[in-house]
Amino acid sequence: MARPMGPVRLRRTNYVTLTIGACLCLFILYFLVQDGSDVSTSSPNADSHPIRKPVTAKSKLIGDRSPVRRFNLNNVTITPDPIENQEVVLILTPMARFYQEYWDNLIKLDYPHELISLGFILPKNKEGNAATAALQAQVTKTQKGPLKDRFRSVVIERQDFDPPILSQDEGERHKIENQKARRSSMSRARNSLLFTTLGAETSWVLWLDADIIETPPSLIQDLAAHDKPLIVPNCYQRYTDPETGKPAERPYDFNSWQDSPTAQELASKMDPDDIILEGYREMATYRALMAYMADRVDERDVEVPLDGVGGTALLVKADVHRDGAMFPPFAFYNLIETEGFAKMAKRLGWAATGLPNYKVYHYNE
Amino acid sequence: MARPMGPVRLRRTNYVTLTIGACLCLFILYFLVQDGSDVSTSSPNADSHPIRKPVTAKSKLIGDRSPVRRFNLNNVTITPDPIENQEVVLILTPMARFYQEYWDNLIKLDYPHELISLGFILPKNKEGNAATAALQAQVTKTQKGPLKDRFRSVVIERQDFDPPILSQDEGERHKIENQKARRSSMSRARNSLLFTTLGAETSWVLWLDADIIETPPSLIQDLAAHDKPLIVPNCYQRYTDPETGKPAERPYDFNSWQDSPTAQELASKMDPDDIILEGYREMATYRALMAYMADRVDERDVEVPLDGVGGTALLVKADVHRDGAMFPPFAFYNLIETEGFAKMAKRLGWAATGLPNYKVYHYNE
Q1: ipTM score
Q2: Which of A335, A294, A303, A321 is closest to A231 using CA atoms?
Q3: Is any Cβ of chain B less than 8 angstroms from the Cβ of A100?
């Protein structure tokens, strides 16, 4: 009886194995389909396969290497109630140095993190390497931490061009003769980051500089509630008053302004390649600076129209960028970077708004 | 002996099942890891999860919703030998009408299709709906067809703004008074498409109009071999000579040109919002048009420097776009769309080149 038992056992074993195998195959198929549908409806980027891996094992198995993705740009809403409408916000940060306070503040933003994608670009130099390492450590920690803290996705890019000035020292950085090269390079970094991370499903882009260390946790929804194409809070800096020894604050970002006849006159006499800079004694523009318009702590929602904007914190409807508005690395109407961006947006029909009493704070170096 | 046999069989079954189960589990894990690494190294877009699905089944299972992707833009090569270096080409086509000949020509391009991503944008009107349906049918057919024909990925977008002129009739479309609105709208479409599909790993962008129905199959590698930031072949049109009844060809695209003192003089007297248009008797610019420079069939590689470019077929190094060069929907130095793009690229330090004897052909309406 030993001989016939073999086949019998074997056959029974086969049935059980086949059943379990079939279940597991269904499980695998579930993942394949799951994955396929994710890719085909979500990733708006045209290049979704790794270089040097033209035909992946998976694509051979499922018999199709090429997901087709369709987007109706009408279906991406951009509304004053972005949480209710589950709108995706892309926070973009060019980063030369990593400040822990920046990250801590970012984590505290109470816009649902599963709707926030992060994009960073860092220079390819020694300082950039250190910042990248520090950033990656925090990203890893957060993305492995409590679910509510984890962001939708994180992209970290390294620049493929050198920054013009090696020193991030504040004095050196702000010298007027270094400004054009510095801000042109910053524009290129912003554009690289923007062009490679903006998707068809992005509703809002929040530009947030790496040295912004304090904002209200409700920053995104507060700004979005104004329903403006470009909106910018007032960037201040906390310090200790040397005379009184008490905490105080002072205006920091002077790039948000309303134009003046003097500045326009100045521009009309300039070479098209020259740029007007704000906040320098050598070049008095008599523009109305938002930095000096903060007057009422309790009227945070007061709006002012702006002609130039700073990029320390700046919320932009994604359609403004999709229309083509970028950060000119060249003199554009004698303006550059974020100020040139506001001008370009205006040329596209999108006006800028400022919130003089809504403050965010810059790191004090 | 019947009773003890049961457990014995069962135990044996268990071993076999466990082994098979373990293998299948490893298989599943392979897919999970495979999938994870795909996402984390390939999709350069920050928004890779579908809207209204903040926490997917998969992310719950693998305990992390948020892939972190790192890119070193230095590692994306852009070389004269893009096939050897496995460089990804993004072909972008704004499409108002679908021509089968366009698709047939696209399929015939012999650049490895697994390195070609396609991006389309179509207007949201009746004609756009028809074109979308026809395009989708062909995309589906190709992506399910022979592996060598299948493209790396395909994105189809629908515009969220209305085209200014409803008729795609050639006469109406080319009327001088309709040109600014038409080309401004075209610029917005190009920018939307570009900003949402360009990735960190894209090396080249080939702009290819939907009415280009004949190109050499080696178009991409031929143009890339010149190693120029922007390069444009000569766009002609085949027709039947009414006098001889024989096949003939004539220049079609007049947007590729070298600037002239007359045009510069014209611009200097214009309102900054006005645009200079090429190919209209009413506005003689005396620019040197590449359309008329084709002289030698056998010297396909002759290069000429250009100041304005057309977009019927136009190969651009992705870095030019990543730097910020886009298609101005507004008058930019009195230029618009692709001609404005060439000017903007030049402002960024990237010059345009034309190949007068290298021809591509436009549909004959």
Answers
A1: 0.77
A2: A303
A3: no
